[in-house]
Fold:
Amino acid sequence: MSNYTDKEEKIIKQCNEGPFYTLITKLSNDEFDDLVLKLINDDNSYALISLVSIYSDYNRNKIIDFFIDKGDIELLLGFLDYCNDFSTLNNQLDQKYVVDKLLEKNDKKFIKDILESNSIYFLTNTEEKNRLLSFISTL
Structure:
């Protein structure tokens, strides 16, 4: 288990108990990255997902990479839907980044399962969806 600062402990408690969607403390970009890495190392998926609803203007790519590497479709789609739901004008979910990372995984079954899922709300860009469909069309 990672050693968390008092500020990080406060944020984790908020992720688990609320208030949700309310910024109770500020994090620098470096502090956010440090917290994300600690949560990844501790495999605290729930807190990572909840973190997005609170800190929606921070870079989520490390978390996206983690969930793709983890290979848990339900967690990945839940996280991406959270990202999409809690996007701001300054920080829209980068669907191209997500699709690029999925294609890098080079796992046709994984991508097929994602596309056949009932919870693929995050993928609204037709061009990106077509890239995934094209990739699995050789199955």
User: Anything to note?
Assistant: The chain has two domains: 1-59, 71-139.
